[in-house]
Amino acid sequence: MTVTDVTVGSAIPEFTVDGVSGEHIRQIALILQDPNPIHFDLDAVARAGMGDREINQGGTTMAYIIDMLAAWTGSSDNVTQIKCRFRGNVRAGDTVIAGGEITTIDAGFAECSVWADLADGTRVIDGTATVNLN
Description:
This protein is of the alpha+beta class. 25% of the residues lie in helices and 34% in strands.
């Protein structure tokens, strides 16, 4: 990819995770040694008033945005900065769609507005990212 391939206002191709895996959520909790039971204990999820499915780690949901940027630019090495605000939860079984749009281009770098939405349009993350277009 080069700077000439994109313009301000261009959409970044979406990245979709179709049906977040509860098993994957539990595995990530083990790998990260994350003791928060909302990632693996359905009774704890219910006691917290958060429904009846495991809750995805926020960092994993943000990684879907990074995956989108890496697929678009050709490498995760091209993602130089990301800042996100977590607005909602992703649960096991949810479909997540990461998207973005170029807001500025300067000296071979693109500033982008980025987000992750549930299939019903609920925005669970929004933020900004900088990618190297060279």
